[in-house]
Amino acid sequence: MRILLIFLIALLPSLLYSEGMPSVVFNSDVLFKVQDENAFKYNAGLKVIAPDFSACAAFGINSVSFSEASSLSAGKFLELQKKTYGIKAHFRSSVLSSDLEVLAGTLCYSGSVSRLKNPGLSSGQNALSFLVFPSSGFNPSLPSFSSSEKPLSFSALYKSGNAFIPELQVYLNQNGEFVFSSVSNLPFCGISFSFTGGIFKHGFTKENSSWKLDRPFYREDYFLSFESRLSLSLEKLRMCLINGFSEQPSGKINGWTRLYTSVYAGPLVLDAAAFYCPDLTVCADGSLLEPALQFMLNPKVSFDIPCGTLSGGMIFFTDFVSSEKNAAAEPEVLNLKTAVRFQKKNLLLSLYAAYKNNFFAGEEIKSAKFSLSRSFKKIKPSLSVSVKEEKKRKIFSASVSALFKSLPLNQLSLNLENEREETKLSASLLFTGGSRSLRWNAKFSAEIK
Question: CB of 29 within 8 A of CB of 429?
Answer without folding.
Answer: no
